[in-house]
Structure formats: structure tokens, C-alpha cells
Design goal:
InterPro entries: Bact_solute-bind_prot3 (IPR051455), SBP_3_CS (IPR018313), Solute-binding_3/MltF_N (IPR001638). It contains 13 helices and 14 strands. It is of the alpha/beta class. The relative contact order is 0.17.
Length: 369
Amino acid sequence: MSVASAFQSLRGAACLGLALSLMGCGPRETARDAPAVVSAAPELTAPSTSSATLKAVLTRGRLNCGVHPGLVGFSFQDNSGRWRGFDVDFCRAMAAAIFSDADRVNFIPLSTSERFKALQTGKVDVLWRSTSWTLSRDAGDGVDFAGVNYYDGQGFLVRKSLRLNSATELQGARICVQTGSTSELNLTDYFRTKGLKFVPVVVRSEDEGRDNYAKGACDALTADVSALAAARSTLDDPQGHMILPEIISKEPLGPVVRQGDDAWADIVRWTLYATIMGEELGITSQKVEDIHAESTHPEIRRLLGAEGNLGGGLGLGPEWGYNILRQVGNYGEIFERNIGEGSPLRLSRGLNAQWNAPERGLIYAPPVR
């Protein structure tokens, strides 16, 4: 059967239903639920920092963290209303660093179109929301990117029944793509470069894109591979769908802050680096107490606050890194429980492996000294 015939037959197929219940597809616990605060909370003042944002957060008593309203594995509410996911855990890591309490977070769900305005107007203190770092955003939106917590790229989700092996076989296909996203621009660039034609099915949100794909209104869905893996996990028959091998863009996803508060950007950046360095040094949430008490390794002692007070330069307490790793875990733990190969998303570490792993990736933290 030709691809064109396959597309035509699929248009008449019965609609696929989305498996929206998160009971069966949600990741495991995002952090240990037992009380984990073992060091005294810092005073709710920050005399050693020039960060206006940190002072506002301390006065408020909670971090306002902008997150995706519902992306399985990255940011979603489970059946009990608790926020879970890869990005959610980094919000909680920041609260652990600032308050010695990972639960002192207000999670504020934001759509693609409203996320930057919410940050610029002070509705949120930071975005941990699957946002791609681009030149135009960095230079023109009044925001700064504080790091990369996930190296992603754009791909295509298709039905296995189409028997496609490559995105170059999508000539004439109807492709669902979210308007106002980098995905829309990348899609046009890719097909133009390849000299191929496609029919855009423009949607307003990721949910609408998944719905249209599930009911056969488009032949392929394009987005970041992480979002495609999340979409596939919600379908009635996840095994009946595949992500094509081509990655057509670079999508470095990471936290975003307002411009003009470099000290706050440092806190966000070093929260991420603490989780990365924790994994590199072999510090897990289960072992951190013993390591804190017994290790003689200089960098471990500095990261955990057993020696010196590097947190003071950030306006934080000496055990800021210890609290992150004790209450939330290191980067590898955060990755595996939310989006790793043991989760419904089944994502391999790939580029998101440590720089010194057997199969090396791009995850790397500067020295803690």
C-alpha cells in the first residue's frame, strides 16, 4: 500500500481515545513523602544577597513556580491533586534550597502564550516549564535562561500501521503542530529544506494536538520528542505508535528568570547544578545523611555544607545543597522516576547523561569551590 493510500484509509478509521487517567500512566513519587527536614530552616531574611526576587520569596514564605498545566512526566497533577514531574521536582529543589522545605512551593500552571508575561509581571518567580532557549527569547523577551535541565529536539509521532521509516516519507501528510511555538517554525524550515510538501493542522495547545492526532485529524504529530513521548503514553494503544528517528531541531529546555536579577539567576542555576553534581559524586537521597556525616571528600563536604558556607554567596544557608539532595534527590533520581526508561515515557538518558558516563552526554556542572 502506498503512503498516500495509508493516509486515506486512516482518515476513515475509528477515533482513538485518550487515556487521560493519570493513575495508570503517571510516574512514581517525585520525592520521599516522609518528613525530610533535618537542618534548621534559615532565617527569613537575606542580608547577604542583592536579589530582590529572593527577598520577595522569603517575605512571602513560598516560591511561585510557573509550570506546564499538564504534561505527563514533566508537570501534572495526580489524582490526589499533588503536582508531580521532572520540572516540578526542580521547583521543589529550589524550595528545599531556600527554605529547607521542598513543599513550600505554589505551582502556577501557565499556557505557552502566557508563560513569559507571567514571569515579566512577577506572577511567578521562575519558569520550570519545558521552554526552549533561543536567541530571540533571550535577547527580546526581557528574560534570561539560567541553564539547561533537558536537552531535547523536535520529532514526529506516527502510527506504526503507516510503515514509515523516515520523516522524509511524510510527503503530503497532514501534520498537527502547535501555533506560536518553535515547533511550527522548525516544521516549515525542515520541509522547505527537504523540498517536501505537507498540510499543516494548526492547533492552539498540546492537548488539542494530542486530541486531533488521536482521532485521526492528522497523520503525524510534531513537537519536542519529550512531549511526543508524553502524548504517546496517553493513547489507548501506546505500542501502536512510534517516534520517527529524525530529530529536526535543537531544543535546550531550561529554567527562565526575569532579566535584571543576576543573584536570583545564580540561585536557580546552582539549584540545577547541585542535582547534577550530586549524581556525579554518587550522592543519592538515600545515602546523603551518611555521606554528610562521614565523607572526607572536599567537594562533597563543600556541596553538603559540612565544610565552609558556599551557600552564603547565594544568600542561602550552608546546607542548601544537602537539603536539595536529601528532599528531592540528584539529577539521575529525578530523571529516572519521572521520565526514564522505567517510567511510562521510557526516555533514555541520551544527551542527558552525565559528561563522564560510559555513554557520555551533555550534563555537566561547574566545580563546587
